[in-house]
Amino acid sequence: MNGLTFDIAHLLAGSLVLISFMMLYQDRLFALINVFALHAVVLALSVAWQAYIQDAHHLYITAAIALVFKAIVIPVGLHRIIQRLGIHRDIETAVGIGPTMLAGIGLVTLSMVLMLRVTPEADPLAREDLAFALSIILLGLLVMVTRRNAVSQVVGFMSLENGLVLAATGAKGMPLVVEISVAFSILIAFIVIGVFLFRIRERFDSVDIGALDDYRGERR
Amino acid sequence: MISQLAVQGAQMLVVLLLAPLLIGFVRKVKARLVRRQGPSVIQPYRDLVRLMRKEVVLADNASWLFRVTPYLIFAATWVAAALVPTFATGLEFSWTADLIVIVALLGSARFFQALAGMDVGTSFGGIGASREVMIASLAEPAMLLIVFSLALVAGATQLSTVAAFMGSPEVGLRVSLGMSLIALVMVAIAENARIPVDNPATHLELTMVHEAMILEYSGRHLAMIELATFLKLLLYMSLIACVFLPWGLYGASAGPKALAVGAAAYLCKLAVLAIVLAVFETAVAKMRVFRVPDFLGAALMLALLGTLLLFVSRSL
Amino acid sequence: MNSTVALLLCGPAAFLASAIMAAAASRLAAATRLVYGATLAISAVLLVTAASHLAGNLGEASATLPLGLPWTGARFRLDGLSAFFLVVVNFGGTITSLYGLGYGRHESQPHRVLPFYPAFLAGMNLVVLANDAFSFLLSWEFMSLASWALVMAHHRDEANRRAGYIYLVMASFGTMALLLAFGLLAGPAGTYAFDAMRTAHPDRFAAGAVLVLMLLGAGSKAGLVPLHAWLPLAHPAAPSHVSALMSGIMTKVAIYGFIRVVFDLLGEPAWWSGVAVLLIGGVTAVLGILHALMEKDLKRLLAYSTIENIGVIFASLGLALAFKANAMPSAAALAFTAALFHVLNHSFFKSLLFFGAGAVLSATGERDMEKLGGLIHRLPVTSFVFLIGCVSISALPPFNGFASEWLVFQAILRSPELPQWGLKVIVPAVGGMLALSAALAAACFVKTFGITFLGRARSAAVERAHEVDRWSLAAMAVLAAFCLLAGILPGFVIDSLSTVTLPLVGERMPVQMAQPWLSIVPIAESRSSYNGLLVLVFITVSASLAAFFIHRFASHALRRGIAWGCGFPDAVPAAQYTAVSFAQPIRRVFGGFAFRSRETVDMPAPGALEPARLKVEMHDVAWEVFYQPITGAIDFATERLNHLQFLTIRRYLTLVFLYLVILLLVLALWP
To answer: Which residues of chain C lie closer than 8 angstroms to B228, CB-CB?
Structure first.
């Protein structure tokens, strides 16, 4: 395997981290969902590239799933939900963009250092890919933590799952079943959370999860 | 030695003569994109000549600093632009200043420009200067971090060495370089006062930054400052071209054919970058001044991330 | 006894003699001129002696005087490091005395300044020469007390008294930390001589404790965050030339103390000590300059900017420690040289800027920038040299501030070769912080020069201002010239520093003066090089070319008119941009986390006649988190102990008796 194929795989994984950062930077819901769609497209590309270089045809299916569901179906669905809820003009970050990005950098550094330290004997680029995957997972968690709105928490959760898929495809010989199950579990989670959104909406007339704190009497 | 000196001299003249043309080209493309006829591409030359012929109107309390500044700004920007490889590497005086010095030279130009904006004591000058230093206080560290990334990849801050290294096949596609490129483009947009950070065509009080600082200038002084602004755009485009599109650069001892290739390649790169800039500026809207820190903060973070990635993965 | 050391020791003695003379004669009319003339001569002699020692690479020399503790005597030693710092101290002393010859005449109470000024110089010289812990601490305390007396020179001002009190408390705290550090270094044998400490190697725990104590002791004197809060109060309170000495020189003596202990006496450093120093340095640089940006008092702004520069120096020293710990001597030499070069540069431009602030103060009677403006028309020479100081401190080429910061950045670029993960992650972050602080420094000094010297006069005091006396102008011009010289001939400074770096980090930077065209090449020419001289020449030539071209071909017509104001009649000068409004965009960007700043707009209802109000609330986090709890605790304790002063004699006797019994009990129960 020559350097260029590795380089492209590496670049795609790196762009995923970059797009995760773009998600941290967005403060409008529509923009956030568009960036998430881009995230999914790049993930699909990355998985397809892995399928090509590992000569593992079943991975193409995973790529197709990522492309169809995560890049098209779910974003369109979320767009609809937002319009139905009438919250498309909300600006909603619980923490400012600057500190969030700083925290993101800290997390990426942490995952790099951690991954490079615990896997000293593995292939260098695979190690970095693993580190990228871990950073995408952590950044997804960060999106979930720093957002007030349930919709953007869903997006954060799905970008986290993208990180999982990236890690799974990076490792050779992962069976297809696992990926399909992961993808479907995400779809189910999406539906559940979608339903949940409407429940919150009905109860509290808002999708700001701060409303739940009010209900529990924990609001300061 | 002689040929290198000739290349260096040619470079100084080329950047000076090409800079207004580049601006004219960008303006023309922007006009065509919105289906206007637009002024001719050589209009900036005519503007400069017209400004030279006009009398200077100085405010009553303008000091000597106000009158010296245009020449200082022009000189600093010209020296900086002359040290960035355009069509050839191996400039005779490239060892005078590395990339950090070039950034700092542009910083000096800005320092004096902001001071000149405050000299007359109008609110316009103050608002422009205070916003300009705010933008610079984020753009400069971002630029320095980009320099760090490049230096780590190429093992040098010397721009000729960096350009030569980036042109060699041992550079693969690297994630950190991609981050640096995006950050560099963002910094270049902010430094050149282009949309979405600032609008070079506006004279509306609330949105001006660069134009507010130079509002009191007229005649030959304004011509110098405008020319320096043109040079700065050319400088950043040449920088992006020589680091990230390093193909066709004329080497130190290659023949005249290579020289022609280098010149043609340089013009093509500039044209491509100018069209990209025009399309980008037409497609986006100017942002509020207090969104600019977020924009530049993102550039700073990207540059820092790129540097960190390189630092951490260097030991592999 | 070596003759050079003897000569150098005569200096402090002569300073002390002139201090006594000054105390006796301070009410005479000629006293000012006599005292400053004497200190000028003494400092100049010491400067030449130390500089020739440094340039001649004469190695070390030591001397022991039968003073101090009876069984040790007072030891003194001259090596490369102390020679370099003697140059810094005595150059500052010479130039400040020159300035004082003119500035001192405006002093309303010369008897409160003149006796302490030579004593302060003597103290700083002795600290740098001391070769045992006892004389070091004694000189250090002497230096602190003399400068404290100078801070209290204008003690009728309530703010100055408060500054003096806080300074005294912090100075004692610093000395206590140093005392403990030397106690640890002396070990169980109690060897107070530096020579003995150098050969004894403390264990890892003790070495770490010494590093922390030195950061507390020397760092509080130098102004490291979070121990900086006293510095912007105390430095500006003194007369301006003393402010220059305190900010430009005394902080450097504190850095000398840190280098002497951590690089020389402590032996091989641990790698994490580099991390600690780097981080503290980076944070100090950013917070210092942010505070300076928010400031509107000219001298306090300069004091805050000192904190920033101290941060840069410490960050560079931290890099040197990290390289030294990892056996990379050439990189360590680069970082260490950068730190020392910045020490020298900062002593140049900070003295220059404080002199300029003093000139403004004596010409207008104002330190508040909001009441100044337009001084470039009234004080043409002062404003020109002040501008050079501003350009130098903003790290712009071809002046000296840029040369040293460029070296720091080159040292940072060597650090990917470091093996530890912690360092790999910290160093680029600190590099980002230093770049940020350099850009903010440029913003800060645009503000300083723009508000103070440009625009229109904001008060009547400015209209009456006249250029200051020739002595002051000469001192400032010399400093401005040195700022330029050190910027265009950095190779000369770097080569002179080789005798300092070689014994301390085991390597020196490559010889620079042999490079063609006098450029500096820290590692290799293909890697990085900088030539300040050529940059200056190029800028001059292109500016002259442009000017020539314009004058040859363009229109010469020039008309004066009123400034463009959008059709509104000329606004009053008070409506210009002020220092606070200039800093507003930056306060909005960084204020949230640096100062927890908050803006509240109080907008009256439409039709109401009261003015709208904008209130800005800012907090000094270090002050609130560190100082207030400590001062609160001390106040509480003293309040309680105060009751002891109002007891009856019987109770006092009871107390003494109880104490005796407790001591006896302890003795009896001690195993």
So the answer is: none
| Domain spans in chain A, listed from the N-terminal domain onward | 3-216
* Set of chain A residues whose Cβ sits within 8 Å of the Cβ of B290: none
Q: Which of C135, C235, C221 is nearest to C177 (CA)?
A: C221
Nearest CA in chain A to B296: A98
Please give the pLDDT value at position B316: 46
Mean pLDDT across chain C: 90
Q: Which one, of B78, B62, B66, B91, lies nearest residue B18 by Cα?
A: B78
Identify whether the C-beta of residue C557 lies closer than 8 Å to the C-beta of residue B93. Answer: no
If DSSP states are collapsed to H, E and C, what string results for B179-216?
HHHHHHHHHHHHHCCCCCCCCCCCCCCCCCCHHHHCCC
Sorted by sequence, the CB contacts under 8 Å of residue A211 that are 6+ apart come out as A200, A204
Is residue C607's pLDDT more than 90? no
Q: Is C636 an 8 Å CB contact of chain A? A: no
* C-alpha to C-alpha distance for C258 and C220, rounded to whole angstroms: 11
Q: Does C577 touch chain A (CB under 8 A)?
A: no
Q: How far apart are alpha carbons B19 and B23 in whole angstroms?
A: 7
Sort out which chain C residues have CB atoms less than 8 A from B54's CB and list them.
Answer: 555, 557
Say if B81 is an interface residue toward chain C (CB within 8 Å). Answer: no
Nearest to A113 among C421, C592, C593 (CB): C421
The pLDDT of residue A220 is 45
Model pLDDT, residue A1: 44
B108: its two tokens: 């000096």
Q: Write out the residues of chain B at the interface with chain A, using a CB-CB cutoff of 8 A.
A: 172-176, 178-179, 182, 293-294, 297-298, 301-302, 304-305, 308-309, 312-313, 316
For residues B182 and B174, what is the distance between their CA atoms, to the nearest angstrom?
A: 13
In this predicted structure, the answer to whether residue B46 has a pLDDT above a threshold of 90 is yes
Find which of A15, A25, A35, A115 to mutate to test the B interface (most B CBs within 10 Å of its CB): A25
Cβ-based contacts of B139 with chain C (< 8 Å): 439
Interface of C with B in 529-548 (CB under 8 A): 529-531, 534-535, 538-540, 542-543, 546-547
The SS3 of residue B217 is coil
The mean pLDDT of C44-51, rounded to a whole number, is 94
**Buried/exposed A2-22: b ≥16 CB within 10 Å, e otherwise:** eeeebbbbbbbbbbbbbbbbb
pLDDT tens digits, residue range B85-108? 888 776 677 778 889 999 999 999
Residues in chain B: 316
Helix (H, G, I), strand (E, B) or coil at C295: coil
> Mutating which of B176, B312, B314 best tests the A interface, going by the most A Cβ atoms within 10 A?
B312
Q: What are phi and psi of A22, to 5 degrees?
A: -60, -35
Instruction: Please check the confidence at residue B56 and state whether its pLDDT lies above 90.
Output: yes
DSSP state, residue A149: B
Residue A62 has pLDDT above 90, yes or no: no
Q: Is A91 helix (H, G, I), strand (E, B) or coil?
A: strand
Distance from CA of C290 to the nearest CA of A (A): 17
Residues of A in contact with B293 (CB under 8 A): 98
Domain boundaries, chain C: 1-200+217-261, 268-540, 622-669
Confidence of residue C242 (pLDDT cuts 50, 70, 90): very high
Query: Do residues C185 and C210 touch, judged by C-beta distance below 8 A?
Result: yes
CA distance C54 to C56: 6
B308/A13 touch (CB, cutoff 8 Å), yes or no: no
pLDDT value of residue A116:
74
Report how far Cα A216 is from the mean position of its chain's Cα atoms: 29
Q: By CA distance, what is B74's nearest residue in C?
A: C543
Contacts for A76 with CB less than 8 Å, ≥ 6 apart: none
